[in-house]
Amino acid sequence: MAYDYITLHPGNGALYEQLYGALKQAIESGKLQKGDRVPSIRKLSEDLGISRTTIENAYQQLSVEGYIRSEPQRGYFVIFGSRRLASPSPGRQLPAPVPVSHARFDLGTDRIDNSHTDLKLWKRHIRDVLNRQDLLTSYGNPQGELTLREALSEYAYRLRGVFASPENIVVAAGTQTLLSIVCGLTGEKQVALVEQGFRQAEQVFSDCNIGIRFLSDDGEGPSICQLKQSGVRLIYVNPSHASEKTSAIPMSRRYELLDWAREAGGLIIEDDYNGELRYNARPIPALQGIGENQPVVYLGSFSKLLLPSVRISYMALPQELAAIYRRRASNYNQTASKTEQLALASYIGSGQMERHLRRLRKLYGEKSQLMLKALREAFPSMRFILQETALYCSFSLPQPLAEKLVKSADEAGIRLRYRREGSHAVMVIGFSGIPPEDIEPAVDTLKSVWKPFLEELKNSRI
Prior knowledge:
Elements: H1 15-29, E1 37-38, H2 41-48, H3 52-64, E2 68-71, E3 75-78, E4 105-106, H4 119-130, H5 133-136, H6 146-160, E5 169-172, H7 175-186, E6 190-194, H8 199-207, E7 211-215, H9 224-230, E8 234-237, H10 251-264, E9 267-271, E10 296-301, E11 313-316, H11 319-328, H12 338-349, H13 352-378, E12 385-387, E13 392-398, H14 399-411, E14 414-415, E15 417-421, E16 424-430, H15 436-449, H16 454-458
Parallel strand pairs: 4-14, 6-7, 8-9, 9-10
Antiparallel strand pairs: 1-3, 2-3, 5-11, 10-11, 12-13, 13-16, 15-16
Helix pairs in contact: 1-3, 4-12, 6-12, 7-8, 13-15
């Protein structure tokens, strides 16, 4: 059978990437329509003479990005209507201390793996800056050091597809600081969030007297119907974050969000927390980078990529908001250390940040599978969800039961937490800080101390 939309060239890059690209282009161009059945893995392997693993890898990436969906006993089907990405204009410029844990096993989410901190190199970049007295005897730029903004412009484009010139980037100590600036720039009185929100963001909106309208997650992200009915013109989303029904907001919903923003004169705040850290599939391009001149504020940070104690975050503002910010820039104080900003600029510019990121992807990919395997073997009746970029596994349960589980774990020397989501709770089991060799013993201990609650867990699944 011939597939005129698939052309593979052995020796010209990984075959699975070529196949992924060909199928993606066929879907976006309309050659494969929404509802069409994609060739089966077995059939495509026979017709093209390539391995099933190659096809499985390509299909997995297309599934993660929301182009196709696997239906049991039926195969893969296209779920994304044709839609071409806008091309950049010709000549466009490319653009709190962590608490010490004394627990025997730390399953929290506020630490990183001690063996992969790249601390030696980071110290070297810090020392290089400290030896430059001319750089340290003046206040920092309120918008962020220019050398860092230039490095971030290239880094965000290469890794996340973000279009932002250094003039449109703002640096600060943490996402909350940046959010408070955005709130002041927009002047909006209401913001929409999905029900499973980010409590630190909710606190900022509350402090800025911005009312919060919660939207339900319909399986593909925030409900567009509810968003339109709400009348708000500002929405905060984390497209790379998993929900109980999807590993990330698929492309089709991302386009719907952008369409809403254009039609309603709205603004999207995209918190791309650890968006470049996906390891089970290739990172999905940022919402901000789809097309050009989109009404999106892009937020990025380095806490889990470098060191949690290095509180450097950045945002890329749309032209209109960037112009407003620059008029006010002299009224803001820079909250991020000038020394650390300059060290980070050097760390990124030397290519060490991206090399470190590749190591982290391998590490967290292995640790996530170790954690999932241990949890599923210990608690076979429970459904665990991997929150890939947030570096934890989770499951839903009633809040009173969550309190009992956390207390019993604490008494056994295990540190973990849960968060409230409406009428229920979500247990959060982190794997970023725990050594790989401690994962199985930690889960075995959980199995032991949670044994009295297993029947209650089985009968109270959310």
